[in-house]
Amino acid sequence: MSGPGFVAELPVRGRRVLVVGGGDRGLGRIAALRDAGADVHVVAPAVAAAVADLAERGLVRWAARAVTEDDGASAALVVVDDAATAPQVRDWAERRGVFCLEPAAAAPAPAGGVGRVILVGGGPGDPGLLTVAGLAAVRAADVIVTDRLAPLAVLDQAPPGVEIVDVGKIPRGRFTPQERINEVLVEYARAGRTVVRLKGGDNFVFGRGGEEWQACAAAGIEVQVIPGVSSAVGVPALAGIPLTHRTANQGFTVITAHVPPGDPRSTLDYAALARTGTALVILMGVATLPAVTAELIRHGLDPATPAATVADGGLPGQRVVRAVVAAIAEVTAAAGIRPPAITVIGSVAAFDPAVEDVG
């Protein structure tokens, strides 16, 4: 096996895999191994923001130090994405009889000219929910600019030597300003590269894809858009929550609650939202959920309205908690749910396929 994407086919479920490096280039392999059920141990003094986020959420383990031969003692597989360390690790892996997967060779320099940017919506977490066109773009990329919410395992499908750039924005953690992300896209495209901007969900639904398109257009860079399955609709569906149901409602409303009600930056009319009669989908609202639900109730929403919070939608660790809207913030916090998570408020949040009428 040697082609892109074969990591997930290795027999690693339930087995310890040592990853040496944890940099941007290793994101795809780490995520693919995690999704394949491996017990992933990353050893490196520093790692990409997306890897640090996986470790903080308990999805992989990270030892922040240099690797030693003892780290590979019980490993079923060793993966290296640090070229400087590869010869040393290869040597002791061979002596132990452990298969060692080394970093791919760097991609050749571009022939010149101006490249292009492809904005790819990656869907909600599961690489299988990436569109066929999105996968084709990943497989044709010279550079992939991504973040922690993208379906990282699909990076293992990228061509050998592709350059991976992690521009993650972790809540209350590492942060790459949007202006810098725009600059990165333009810089690589001007160097003659085919640049894929891979995000979770859909780039144009609270994904700032419009801003990235404008920045590229202003620089004279060709832009292609490949829509993705929006997390606003995909994640509730994965949790068995239909956002519309003929006997329950006639629509749904999607909002972002990254700032709470009353904040000068908030432009939402919570009184109107409380009266709309549609299902309400709240994105980026884990921290502000207590204030949001209190404001909705204050404006007349029935406190007994069903609600559900879905965390890590489309990922192996997906979780769902349910309560009435008056209690959903407390239940969400008690369950230790952290971003990414989506809250659905409305009768459909209590959907039971065995019951004909959910209204």
Report on this model:
It is a single chain. This protein is an alpha/beta fold. It folds into 3 domains: 95 residues, Rossmann fold, CATH 3.40.50; 114 residues, Cobalt-precorrin-4 Transmethylase, domain 1, CATH 3.40.1010; 119 residues, Methyltransferase, Cobalt-precorrin-4 Transmethylase, Domain 2, CATH 3.30.950.10. It contains 10 helices and 15 strands. It has a 5-stranded parallel beta sheet, with helices on both faces. The longest helix is centred in the middle third of the chain and has 13 residues.
The radius of gyration computed from the alpha-carbon positions, rounded to a whole number of angstroms, is 22 Å
Largest sheet: 5 strands, parallel
Order of helices and strands: EHEHEEHEEHEEHEHEHEHEHEEHE
Average pLDDT, to the nearest integer? 91
Tell me the structural class: alpha/beta
Number of domains: 3
List low-pLDDT spans: none
Number of strand elements: 15
State the CATH topology of the largest domain.
Methyltransferase, Cobalt-precorrin-4 Transmethylase, Domain 2
- Please give the order of strands in the largest beta sheet: 3-2-1-4-5
CATH class of the largest domain: Alpha Beta
Helix fraction, binned, reads 25-40%
Head-to-tail CA distance between termini: 53 Å
- Examine the secondary-structure arrangement and name the CATH architecture of the largest domain: 2-Layer Sandwich
Number of helices: 10
Shape label: globular
